[in-house]
């Protein structure tokens, strides 16, 4: 059933589509290379993205998430919106600024993206996003806000974001790393001209990395939209990962019976403070699997068993840092 992105936000679907794996030929999801096969040209990637977007829209997905660093994700989304004749307001579109894509369509590139939370980067990337997405752009987020970048204390950046907010754009931030909760609580305090600046947060949450949960509940209580990403832990909670450490999770999925990615997605959907759970599907088949989570029975007993599978944040993020671009 459609609901809103926060207390006063636009209408969204419970499951959204994130385009990190659709907009560029390299990503850190396990098996991404296998999913793409030899179809890595810009034209082939755009065709694939349109197919997944078509399947998502047909299934009722109405939130789509991109970023300037996701290769050509914004371009692919824009061409799909135009080709299908979807008007502004027909779907909710979010994008992000703060990372620049630097791989040049080369999976073997030494660096795939470079972080820059400066005012000049915001202005440049916002202009680029607006040029591609036009009036469809509803939500603009700081990409992976951290204490180290200083973005939450940069009055020039915050002032520019406030200006965009006054023009009608919703302003949010995404999070990453073991300090997600602390950064979010700092963001909840940020005000410009006496008003809260942010109204949405996108965070990594999954059955292995639950540490942001209490802070996300606080954001929800404050009227923010809450978007969950990496709910399948970049493939670790999917069918390809056969590591012994995750055998109990796979066994629990078999008990349901369902696939591990379905169970992982259902766990995220079940959190009471969640507005949207992003599918990071790179294929129509993966998307169909994630959609099945919308109908998976999920109760307190299942939640209690999954809670015992969480890793410590340092361990989780250390493991994530070893995942290869492919």
Automatic annotation (TrEMBL):
Protein name (record): Predicted oxidoreductase
Gene3D superfamilies: NADP-dependent oxidoreductase domain (3.20.20.100)
Species this protein is from: Stigmatella aurantiaca
PANTHER family, sorted: D-THREO-ALDOSE 1-DEHYDROGENASE, NADP-DEPENDENT OXIDOREDUCTASE DOMAIN-CONTAINING PROTEIN
InterPro entries in the record: AKR2_Oxidoreductase (IPR053135), NAD(P)_OxRdtase_dom_sf (IPR036812), NADP_OxRdtase_dom (IPR023210)
NADP-dependent oxidoreductase domain segment(s): 46-298
Secretion signal span: none
